[in-house]
Amino acid sequence: MFPTADELKARQDLLRRLHDSGNPAAIARADELQRTYHDDNMAVLSKDTYWSAMGEHATEEGKKSPPGWIRASENLDKLRETAPKLAHLTDKQLLDYLKPDDSGFRAEIYFPIPEVLAPATNRSSSPRDRPAKSSGRTANSTPPAPKTSSPTTFHSPSA
User: Fold this and answer.
1) Which residues fall within 8 angstroms of residue 9, CB to CB, at 6 or more apart?
2) Structure pTM?
């Protein structure tokens, strides 16, 4: 159901080739594709947030992070590295924020894997080129692709 890591790399390669062509029509098409790919990634992460909340009841595909992404709840050291203000919190405290035992609320933070989801270009001056941030039930569909330095966050209603 999710694109494979190879498919994600092929998407980035296509975007890179279109941008590098110098052809204005190809560049416009790359921008359009980049928005489409971003929206697809946000849909994948939204679905995975629900699967993550299901825990052992998730499908086999849902028991692991989607290709190209790392769940912060499964890599708390990376979460602390990315957000140093959280470094003083224990694993239990962090997990309680993401998956509290006394609530149906669930959240997940995703880190893109640079080798799979490297940005198609180095352009970063446009607001559309900034990292994806999302909360609530729907994903923000404006930014084109997540950058490798910023996590993406999703929230899920009760599991």
Assistant:
1) 116
2) 0.70
Distance in angstroms (rounded) separating the CA atoms of residues 154 and 74? 15
pLDDT tens figures, 86-123: 999 999 999 999 888 888 788 899 999 999 987 655 44
**11: domain range?**
5-156
Contacts of residue 94, Cβ cutoff 8 Å, sequence gap at least 6: 73, 76, 79, 80, 86
Query: Residue 138: pLDDT above 50?
Result: no
Domain count, the chain: 1
Asked if 79 and 109 count as a contact pair (C-beta separation under 8 A), the reply is yes
